[in-house]
Amino acid sequence: MRAKRRETLTAQGSGRVAEPYREIVEPIHVATTYERGTDGSYPGGRVYSRADNPTYDAPEALIASLEGAHAALLFASGEAAAGAFFQALMPGAVLAPRNMYWALRKWLLDFAKPRGLAVEFYDNASIDDLAAKARAVKPRGIWIETPANPTWEVTDIAAASAIAREVGAVIGIDSTVATPLLTRPIELGASIVMHSATKYLNGHSDVIAGALAAARDDALWQSIRYIRGGGGSVLGPFESWLLLRGIRTLHLRVACTCSNAMAIAQRFERHPKLSHVLYPGLASNPGHAVAARQMSGGFGGMMSLRLKAGEEAAKAFTAKLRVFKRATSLGSVESLAEHRASVEGPGTPCPADLVRLSIGIEHIDDLIGDIEEALG
Asked: One of 57, 174, 353, 370 is an active-site residue; which one?
């Protein structure tokens, strides 16, 4: 039989039928410990659920399959997953994008940097800036987020991977927004792919989870595996089960959010009250050509609007929304909006006039109507 397409893999939760009862829905294993054999071995192949649990098997295998990866690991959050990558590189130098998930940027500066990780930031949209800094710094790792939160710059993964090979660095990529249905970073040269699985993979705002997928079983991956088990940053079995359930509709949700986002971007691209609609699917976007080359099936469900009248107008706009909910997070079935600079606080590189939108699966006319009314 030919290999299953990604839509089939997601819909069937990888398609595994559990033994011995032949359930088509994975069971939940809540045991924390496992019986030893009389000789001290573990005949069931499990030791302790801080290291792994049978409930992790199906979602990890599915994420690895979707990414074309050697293996995947679940974590208690996306932050824990990304943190494991950077901890595996300590001490040493890393490059990270100027615009990236704010909590991870803050963790790099406040926690990792004082503990031996020399962090330098590069311009997300400039492969020349990345190349110059990589050749000067000779980092152990390069972190990419594409499209990059909250301004959605696009980084050329293949070009960045070539630079990483040149300087002997490993590439880690936050592909949360793209999802494995739109971009497959390992095929473009990435070593590690990270997902805040809280977002699109789960898609229902009811699970905090993270995932890493590895191109190969090497020393870096073994170190990451040890960091997860040794540090105990594992996902609970019920959350693992919920995550797998969420992934089963991933292809439907991503297709709908991409369609809705494109329609909204095109509708408001030239609105007189907006200075910019930041969305890589627009032909006018500086990163569109790269996005079109490395993304297939759509350009994602995230965008930002910048209001000509400035910060107070942006805040007032979010206050007038009724269909969009004013909340942090992204990638779920409901549409969300927030004045992002207020969330990130002092030191943020986010423009003060920017409103971040996570586009959901609601009817497109309701979403467009809500934005139009809020803009007045």
From this structure: 174
